[in-house]
């Protein structure tokens, strides 16, 4: 397991930064990136003040915020060093959480590699997009003779709990 610090956190990592209201940071004590993001390092982690989140160079940094974030809005957030994970295309660290009542889906990182059906970030993003489409659209359901909510539950559950591709899951449901 890699231990991240101020010299390694910005190289192929995944992290969820938590928005903070305010801390007194003197800009002269910060590192300023070429894209004008400010970084303030502590023993516990890093504060980042930036107007861009998500894909940051070779990293995927998610912003967890209490307010509604709009792109290009400057936000100050903090992440502990232990919350950074190495991001390699072959490493399966992620799973998809689905709330069928609110029709919301979220990619989460697993703290344990023993969890079944872990995915690479790329695969998780693809499946998340497919799930959002299944919730948003209903045209695809016209080929089935079942209740759409039951279909959604069956298809999405199979999608997040197996390696089967979505078209095969739908085909198998139609044939049964």
Can you put this structure into words, describing what you see?
This protein is α+β, with helices and mostly antiparallel strands and 176 residues long. It has two domains: 13-86, no CATH class; 96-106 and 120-175, no CATH class. The protein has helices spanning 121-136, 148-160, 166-175, and strands spanning 13-19, 31-32, 38-41, 45-50, 54-56, 59-64, 75-80, 85-86, 94-99, 104-109. The strands form two sheets. Strands 1, 2, 3, 4, 5, 6, 7 and 8 form an eight-stranded mixed β-sheet that branches. Helix 1 runs antiparallel to helix 2. It is elongated, with a radius of gyration of 20 Å.
Question: Which key features would you list for this structure?
Answer:
2 domains; 10 strands; alpha+beta; 3 helices; 176 residues; 8-stranded mixed sheet
Secondary structure layout:
Blueprint: E1 13-19, E2 31-32, E3 38-41, E4 45-50, E5 54-56, E6 59-64, E7 75-80, E8 85-86, E9 94-99, E10 104-109, H1 121-136, H2 148-160, H3 166-175
Parallel strand pairs: 1-6
Antiparallel strand pairs: 1-7, 1-8, 2-3, 3-4, 4-7, 5-6, 9-10
Helix pairs in contact: 1-2
């Amino acid at each position: 397991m890699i231990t991240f610090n101020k010299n390694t956190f910005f190289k192929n990592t995944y992290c969820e930064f938590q928005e903070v209201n305010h801390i007194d940071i003197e800009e002269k004590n910060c590192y300023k990136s070429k894209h004008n993001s400010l970084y303030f390092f502590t023993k516990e982690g890093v504060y980042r003040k930036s107007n861009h989140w998500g894909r940051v160079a070779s990293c995927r940094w998610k912003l967890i915020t209490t307010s509604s974030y709009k792109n290009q809005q400057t936000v100050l957030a903090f992440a502990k060093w232990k919350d950074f994970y190495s991001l390699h295309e072959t490493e399966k660290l992620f799973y998809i959480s689905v709330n069928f009542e609110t029709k919301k889906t979220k990619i989460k990182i697993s703290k344990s590699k023993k969890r079944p059906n872990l995915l690479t970030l790329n695969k998780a993003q693809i499946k998340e997009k497919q799930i959002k489409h299944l919730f948003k659209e209903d045209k695809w359901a016209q080929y089935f003779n079942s209740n759409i909510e039951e279909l959604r539950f069956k298809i999405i559950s199979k999608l997040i709990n197996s390696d089967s591709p979505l078209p095969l899951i739908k085909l198998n449901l139609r044939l049964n």
